[in-house]
Amino acid sequence: MTILFWILRVLAAVIMLQTLYFKFSGAEESIYIFSTLGMEPWGRIGTGVVELIASVLLLIPRTTPIGALLGLAVMSGALFFHLTKLGIEVKGDHGQLFIYALLVFISCLVLAWSFRKKLFNYIG
């Protein structure tokens, strides 16, 4: 199980971290997405900051549950907007961003559920 948890941590963190370049550099696709949502530039930069924090927290075993919850929150928003305003395919990406969001969501969901006792210790 430890190996599976590390695979899920690294998968989610790497996907979120690799998208930061595009968000922070103002790549055309990122600007298009957040303009379509009416959240450019604050939404693009804010989402990038939260994804960076979630990625770091996921990779630290003690804070994995918090990182998983943050990742779930951000990816819930991403999936919601893909399904309502953006579409699964954005600017001819063949659904790649949607698939990445889904992979991160599933990884974070499994991690949050698996570490739920630790999460309740943070709350209580």
Question: What brief labels describe this structure?
Answer:
elongated; 124 residues; 6 helices; mainly alpha
Topology:
Blueprint: H1 2-25, H2 28-36, H3 42-59, H4 64-86, H5 96-114, H6 116-123
Helix pairs in contact: 1-3, 1-5, 3-4, 4-5
Give a short summary of the structure.
The protein has 124 residues and is mainly α.
Structure description:
The protein has 124 residues and is mostly helical. It has one domain (2-117). It is built from 6 helices and no strands. The protein has helices at residues 2-25, 28-36, 42-59, 64-86, 96-114, 116-123. The longest helix is centred in the first third of the chain and has 24 residues, at 2-25. The protein is elongated and about 40 Å long.
Number of strands: 0
**Helix and strand run:** HHHHHH
Percent helix, as a range, is over 70%
Secondary structural class? mainly alpha
Shape: elongated
Main β sheet profile? none
Number of helices: 6
- From the N-terminal CA to the C-terminal CA, the straight-line distance is 26 Å
Strand content: under 5%
Oligomer: single chain
